[in-house]
């Protein structure tokens, strides 16, 4: 059976660039990989066919020969992707082609392209610090000193991990790559080098202070500026204040997560504050004025309208929390809680009983409720 055109196999035009050919092959390799097509008996053959096409088209000389002579360019032992006499790829050629694209498919996850030997210094970990503050501090903003347990660069070896000014040596097992590869059938498996643990270097004479790590554990004191308007969940990033990297690697970052404590008087919703204020029955019925606290430590006088009920709210504009990134301040809402008196004296009870005997239509909610009850009972009788 005649072989398929290599360009057709990869789904590209004859004038496709090297990048377009590589991109098409990567897509085919993912799509046709036998491990992802257990129910498709043709997948392995199609996968090998795509590898064979890519083995030729990725090479400028082989591609030029193929463009001129087609599959005949590789017949008669001339080499190329078709193998001897066009008999298909051998196991070694197939493994080589797949290994060739292994970095393209998985390079980002495995640490990027593997170039020459060199240091595999690792970036330090990012750190998290949970900071609890009061609502007053969130309102005004503050500067606070915190102590963070972390890893800092070793001063004895200046972060190299080597004693007495000596230098780390290239790892003999992985030649500085930090990775080792093993051939398993059609596939190339890549693992972290067991000798250097992926660092690409070994130290013959480790630093006595840090034991070759290039860093030591230490508590670091930092001053943190908390902006006004923060709320629970706000995250503050301090670049370069995380853990020091291994053997001179870059330092990680410190993330401070804010948690604002609950307040005894105020409840917060975004930039607005709510304050529940108890008022007596007489004050609610007759009206009057009350004095309420504000989050900045001040006081405001609020007028209570006659006949106020529990849950009634009054707004104090601009007395709430500041917006974190500008945009003014929220409002403060006073919510009335009409309080029923307890531990009444005999005289107080007498006055209330007398008041209750005076029939008047001055309980709108009660009148409405009992009117609804009467209608309900009448409908049930019907």
Automatic annotation (TrEMBL):
Zn(2+) 1 binds at residues 154, 157, 207, 210. Binds 2 Zn(2+) ions per monomer. The keyword Cytoplasm applies. GO terms for biological process: DNA replication; protein refolding; response to heat. One of its GO terms (molecular function) is unfolded protein binding. Signal peptide: none annotated. A zinc finger (CR-type) spans 141-219. Pfam families: DnaJ, DnaJ_C, DnaJ_CXXCXGXG. Residues 141-219 form the CR-type domain. Residues 5-70 form the J domain. Its cofactor is Zn(2+). Participates actively in the response to hyperosmotic and heat shock by preventing the aggregation of stress-denatured proteins and by disaggregating proteins, also in an autonomous, DnaK-independent fashion. Unfolded proteins bind initially to DnaJ; upon interaction with the DnaJ-bound protein, DnaK hydrolyzes its bound ATP, resulting in the formation of a stable complex. GrpE releases ADP from DnaK; ATP binding to DnaK triggers the release of the substrate protein, thus completing the reaction cycle. Homodimer. The J domain is necessary and sufficient to stimulate DnaK ATPase activity. Zinc center 1 plays an important role in the autonomous, DnaK-independent chaperone activity of DnaJ. Zinc center 2 is essential for interaction with DnaK and for DnaJ activity. Belongs to the DnaJ family. This is Chaperone protein DnaJ. It comes from Cognatiyoonia koreensis. The lineage of its organism: Bacteria, Pseudomonadati, Pseudomonadota, Alphaproteobacteria, Rhodobacterales. The gene is dnaJ.
């Amino acid at each position: 059976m005649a072989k398929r055109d290599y360009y057709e196999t990869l789904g590209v035009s004859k004038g496709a660039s090297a990048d377009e050919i590589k991109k098409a092959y990567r897509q085919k390799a993912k799509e046709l990989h036998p491990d992802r097509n257990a129910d498709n008996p043709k997948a392995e053959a199609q996968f090998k066919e795509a590898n064979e096409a890519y083995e030729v088209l990725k090479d400028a000389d082989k591609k030029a020969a193929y463009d001129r002579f087609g599959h005949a360019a590789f017949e008669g032992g001339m080499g190329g992707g078709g193998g001897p006499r066009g008999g298909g790829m051998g196991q070694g050629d197939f493994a080589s082609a797949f290994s060739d694209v292994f970095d393209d498919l998985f390079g980002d996850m495995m640490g990027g392209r593997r170039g020459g030997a060199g240091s595999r210094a690792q970036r330090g970990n990012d750190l998290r610090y949970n900071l609890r503050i009061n609502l007053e501090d969130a309102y005004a903003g503050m500067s606070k000193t915190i102590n963070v347990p972390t890893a800092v660069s070793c001063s004895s070896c200046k972060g190299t991990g080597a004693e007495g000014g000596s230098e780390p040596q290239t790892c003999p097992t992985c030649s500085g790559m930090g990775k080792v590869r093993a051939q398993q059938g059609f596939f190339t498996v890549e693992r972290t080098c067991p000798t250097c643990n992926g660092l690409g270097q070994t130290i013959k004479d480790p630093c006595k202070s840090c034991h070759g790590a290039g860093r030591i554990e230490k508590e670091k004191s930092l001053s943190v500026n908390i902006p006004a308007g923060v709320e629970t969940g706000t995250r503050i990033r301090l670049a370069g204040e995380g853990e020091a990297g291994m053997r001179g690697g870059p330092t990680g970052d410190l993330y401070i997560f804010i948690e604002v404590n609950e307040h005894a008087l105020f409840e917060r919703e975004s930039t607005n504050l709510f304050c529940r204020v108890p008022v007596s029955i007489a004050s609610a019925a007759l009206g009057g004025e009350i004095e309420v606290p504000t989050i900045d430590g001040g006081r405001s006088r609020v007028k209570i309208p006659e006949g106020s009920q529990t849950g009634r709210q009054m707004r104090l504009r601009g007395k709430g929390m500041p917006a974190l990134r500008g945009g003014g301040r929220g409002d403060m809402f006073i919510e009335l809680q009409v309080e029923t008196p307890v531990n009444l004296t005999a005289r107080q009870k007498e006055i209330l009983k007398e008041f209750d005997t005076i029939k008047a239509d001055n309980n709108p909610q009660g009148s409405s409720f009992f009117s609804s009850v009467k209608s309900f009972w009448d409908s049930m009788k019907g």
